[in-house]
Amino acid sequence: MTLRRKPIAPHVAELGRFVVNGVAATAIHYGVLSFNLKVLGIPSAGVANFIAAWFGITASFIGSRFFVFRRKEAPLLRQAARFLALYASIACLHGLMLFVWTDTFHLNYTVGFAIATVLQTALSYLGNKLLVFSAS
Predict the structure, then answer these.
(1) Which residues fall within 8 angstroms of residue 57, CB to CB, at 6 or more apart?
(2) For residue 127, which of 30, 61, 51, 53 has the smallest C-alpha distance?
(3) Directed axis angle between helix 76-98 and helix 45-63, to 10°?
(4) How far is the C-alpha of 88 from the C-alpha of 94, rounded, in Å?
(5) Residue 55 — φ and ψ, nearest 5°?
């Protein structure tokens, strides 16, 4: 009796690659943040994080283009511009949600951050798939 493995649906594999890419980009972001604070001695965590975020965003873009969505034939600058616009929009929404949750309703910021991050992750995947790395 031979067991045949059912192939993984392409969208499930893509979603898995998205998670792997996100974890890697987050690790890079955190690693650069720690480096900025501990090795370079940048006194402001906000400034150190701002710098580190660009490393994480760059890693996320490269991973998305070549690993997650595999749309390297599209023009690089067009994808990069769309990616940055998407991430800037999502970051603003994330910040607005946290402001309303914590500053307006005086609810726990950790819970608000978690909720906003779940929404951010979903919007990131859908936005990248449909707007940034679409086949067209």
Answers:
(1) 25, 84, 87
(2) 61
(3) 140
(4) 10
(5) -70, -45
Which helix (H) or strand (E) covers residue 118, if one does? helix 109-127
Q: Look up the pTM and report it.
A: 0.81
Q: How would you write the pLDDT of the chain (136 residues) with one tens digit per residue?
A: 566 666 678 889 999 999 999 999 999 999 999 999 999 999 988 888 889 999 999 999 999 999 999 888 889 999 999 999 999 999 889 889 988 988 899 988 888 888 988 999 999 999 999 999 986 5
CA pair distance 105, 30, nearest whole angstrom: 29
Distance of CA 92 to the CA centre of its chain: 14
Reported residue count of the chain is 136
Q: Where are the alpha helices (DSSP H) in 1-108?
A: 10-38, 45-63, 76-98
